[in-house]
Amino acid sequence: MRPTPSDELDESELARFGLSRETDLRLDREGDFYSGQQPVAHPGTAAAFARWIVRAPDGRYALRNDLHYVYLTVEGAPLHARRAAGTPPAPPVLELTGGESEPLRPETLRRDPEGVLYAAGRDGSWVIRLSPQATLDLAPWLEEDEDDVVLRVAGRRWRIPEVDDPLQG
């Protein structure tokens, strides 16, 4: 993480400036941000929050901008794909909330018991949850065989395993 002006300050020093890293900000399972019980309704604010998600030095999820970082609660995957784009046989590109994009890593694609798809993102240690629309967008890369649906990318085929906990990679 790049340093911010408040990185060297502990909680008591932050409090002197009326700041804290603790917040009631929350990212729910569906990829929507909340402040307390209120949804973050402004699309620009929600998009900025989605771009600002990082892991703080202590491993917790945080929102980091150029001035400060604050903790937030993440109730599922920290990254969310709203769409998938591209043309087979090239790999699909996941369009993330906030405007970022990530090439889909086919070998990391998995589904939970409810059929929701997940994949690895960023450095491979982050989890991306695919929205229903992003899942539908994968249709040109999907085909059926005698056992199941498989993903075909650049001439290779990947099964999409069902896992109990897709957040564990």
How do the strands and helices of this protein lay out in sequence?
Layout: H1 11-16, E1 25-27, E2 33-35, E3 38-39, H2 43-52, E4 53-55, E5 61-64, E6 69-71, E7 73-74, E8 79-85, E9 93-96, E10 101-103, E11 110-111, E12 117-121, E13 126-130, H3 132-137, E14 142-144, E15 149-153, E16 156-159
Q: What would you say this structure looks like, in words?
A:
The longest helix is centred in the first third of the chain and has 10 residues, at 43-52. The protein is 13% helix and 34% strand. The chain is mainly beta and 169 residues long. The strands form four sheets. Strands 10-9-8-13-12-11 form a six-stranded mixed β-sheet. A four-stranded mixed β-sheet has the order 3-2-1-7, with no helix packed on it. The chain has a three-stranded antiparallel β-sheet with strand order 4-5-6. It has helices at residues 11-16, 43-52, 132-137; strands at 25-27, 33-35, 38-39, 53-55, 61-64, 69-71, 73-74, 79-85, 93-96, 101-103, 110-111, 117-121, 126-130, 142-144, 149-153, 156-159. It has two domains: 11-74, duf1285 like fold; 79-161.
